[in-house]
Specification:
Length: about 180
């Protein structure tokens, strides 16, 4: 038999085309269906929903899934358990990894006032928020020197979240 005839005999896979009737708009239901076939674990699934679908309920799930791993990172350094400091570091890392759009100019890169239109200083006109040590410490509500003291641990959290995202994207075939 020819190869073309054999391919006709093989059952076709399920169609992943949009099933909704929302005027060619991809909905969260469509995305959930696609993600359900990609064998993502809970962390990967929550991260993708939070970052790309803007699902706020996934943030607490992602936080809960990562908290024990982040505690291990900080316990190696014997970080004091004062005022939920580990929680503040994890929350800030999740925000930095998932919220790329500038929150001041809403991602436009420009600030409009009654007198002028100026380039946004928080994203330098790119629309992507610039996270520096001052901003991170402000989000956490700690002094900058305290953040600098544990910056290496913070960077480990960022690496962990980025690894989860890369793993998830490779599973859905986006990388």
């Amino acid at each position: 038999m020819k190869a073309e005839l054999l391919t006709l005999l093989i059952p076709s896979t399920q169609s992943f085309e949009l099933s909704s009737t929302h005027h060619n708009k991809t909905t969260s239901e469509d995305i959930n269906m696609l993600l359900s076939y990609s064998n993502l674990d809970k962390k990967e699934y929550s991260l993708l929903l939070m970052k790309y679908v803007d699902d706020k309920t996934s943030e607490s799930t992602l936080f809960d899934e990562l908290f024990d791993e982040v505690c291990e990172i900080f316990l190696k350094r014997e970080v004091p358990k004062e005022c939920g400091m580990i929680r503040k570091f994890l929350n800030t890392a999740i925000i930095e990894c998932c919220v790329e759009k500038c929150v001041v100019c809403q991602g436009t890169g420009y600030l409009k006032t009654t007198d002028s239109i100026d380039k946004c200083p928080h994203c330098d006109g790119t629309g992507e928020f610039i996270y520096d040590d001052h901003v991170r410490s402000s989000i956490m509500g700690v002094k900058k020197n305290y953040f600098i003291k544990y910056k290496k641990e913070y960077e480990s959290i960022i690496e962990k979240i980025n690894a989860i995202e890369n793993s998830a994207l490779s599973k859905i075939g986006d990388t």
